[in-house]
Amino acid sequence: MSTSPSENKLAIHGGAPAIRQPLPPMYPGGMRIDAEEEASVLEALRAKRLFRYYGPNPGPSKVAELEERFAARMGATYGLAVTSGTAALICGLNGLGVGPGDEVIIPAYTWIASASAVVAVGAVPVVAEVDDSLTLDPADVEAKITPYTKAILPVHMRGLPCKMDELMTVARKHNLKVLEDSAQADGVSYKGRQVGSIGDAGAFSLQFNKILTSGEGGMLITSQQEVFERAAMFHDVIGGQRNHIPEERILPGINFRMPELLAAVALVQLGKLDALLTDMRARKRMILESLADVTRRKGVTLPALNDPEGEAGLAAIFLMPEAALARKVSEALSAEGLGSWLLYSPDATDYHVYAHWTPIMQQRTWTPNGGPWRNHPRKIEYTKDMCPRTLGLLGRAVHIDVNPEDSNSQIEEICEALEKVFEAIL
Q: What is the pLDDT of residue 6?
C-alpha cells in the first residue's frame, strides 16, 4: 500500500483520518434483523401465543422449536431456552450438581457473568491464567485444582475456541465436570465439533452484542439426560412436572423460561448463522493478509489459534511488543476513525478482566452471612496481580471488531488505518 508523506501523517497529529466511510455498529445478528424476524414475531402475536406452554389457541411453541433446532445445530441432544446467557450458566451449573463447598475454575479473561454465575449457585470461582490463545490455560487449570474443585468453565472468548482436548483430558483425569461458556461463540468449532457440545454442557447468549441475538436470551445445550432434567427443573418452578420427571426426583426451581417472542426472533437468527460466520471470517482473512508484511516487520503477533478454521472471525486482535506501544497504537487507531481498545488497561474498568471484578475480588455478599466464601472449607484470596501472564498478554492486545457488514472498500480503509499506524508508531 503506497501513500505520500502527507497521507502518512497520523490523524492524532493532525493528518487526515484513514477511515472516510463511517463504519457500521458491531451487532452481527442485530444488524441483519429484517422482515423475516418481523413476520415470525407477528405470527406469535397474532396467535396470542406469548407463553411457551399455552395460549388461547392451540399451536406449536416457538421456544420448543428453538430448543430442538439450536441443539441440533450445535451438536447436542437437548436444548433449554432461557432468559439470558447468565441464566444458561446458572442452569448449567445446577444441572451439573455444582453448589456450596465446590470450586469452579474460570479464566482470568471473561465477562464477569462467568464468575457471578458460579457465586449464584453457592460455589467459589477460582481464577486461572489464559495462554497465548487468550483462552483458559490447561496447565494452570491443573495447577489450580484442589480437593474441592467440581468443575471447569472454559470460555471461548471473542469467538476463539479453547484447547478443549487438553482441558477435557484434565477434567477426565480429575473427575471434573465441564461447562463451556460459548456466549461469544455461536457456531464456532474445535477440530470438527461445535463448541458447547464438547464438555458436559454448553451455555450461549442471545444478548444484542452477540453473534445471534433476540435482544436478550440464552441457550443451554447438553447430551446428558440427567444434566438436562436438572437444568430444566431449575429453570421452571414446575419444570419437573412439565418434563415428566418422577415426583420423588423433583427439585425446587425458579423462573428462567424464555418467552415466545424472543424465540420467534432467535429462530430466524439461527438460520442466518452460517452466512454471518462466512462473512466475518472472509473479512478477517482480508485484514490479516493485507497486514501480514507490516506485522512481521514490526514484531506484531496474533493470538494463537487452537483451530484456525473454527474461530468466529468476529475480531482481529494484535499483540504489540509492549504495553506502552499498545496504548499508543490504540489511541492512534481511534483517531483514524477505527474503533479499537486495549483488552486490559489498569486505569479503565472493564468487567472482561478479572482484576476489575471488584464485587468478586472483594468477596462482597448480599447479606452479612451470605456468599460462598465465608463458610468455604479453605480460605480463598484474590489479588489484582494473581494472574500476571494474563495481564501481560491483555495489556499488549489491541482489539478491533471485524464486522460482517463492512464493505470491501471499508475493509481497505481499515487496512490502511492499521498499516499507517503500525508504520508510524512501531
A: 53
Catalytic residue among 163, 177, 210, 272: 210
Does some domain include residue 120?
A: yes
* Residues 35-63 pLDDT 10s: 999 999 999 999 999 999 999 988 899 99
Distance CA 124, CA 114 (A): 11
How confident is the prediction for the chain on average, in pLDDT? 96
CATH of the domain at 100: 3.40.640.10
Identify the segments of the chain with pLDDT beneath 70: 1-7
Kindly give the interhelix angle for 85-95 and 113-120, rounded to the nearest 10 degrees.
Answer: 40
Cross-strand partners of 166? none
| Burial state string for 185-224 with b = 16 or more CB within 10 A and e = fewer than 16 | bbbbbbeeebbbbbbbbbbbbbbeebbbbbebbbbbbbeb
Instruction: Give catalytic status of residue 173 as yes or no.
Output: no
Distance (Å, whole) CA 360 – CA 73: 35
C-alpha cell at 306: 487452537
pLDDT at 288: 98
Within-domain flag for 307: no
Answer yes or no: is 182 within a domain: yes
**Residue 393 CA: distances (Å) to CA of 135, 163, 215:** 11, 17, 32
Write down the pTM of the prediction: 0.96
Query: Domain count of the chain?
Result: 1
Distance CA 236, CA 257 (A): 6
Q: The C-alpha cell of 262 is what?
A: 424472543
165-201 per-position pLDDT tens digit: 999 999 999 999 999 999 999 999 999 999 999 999 9
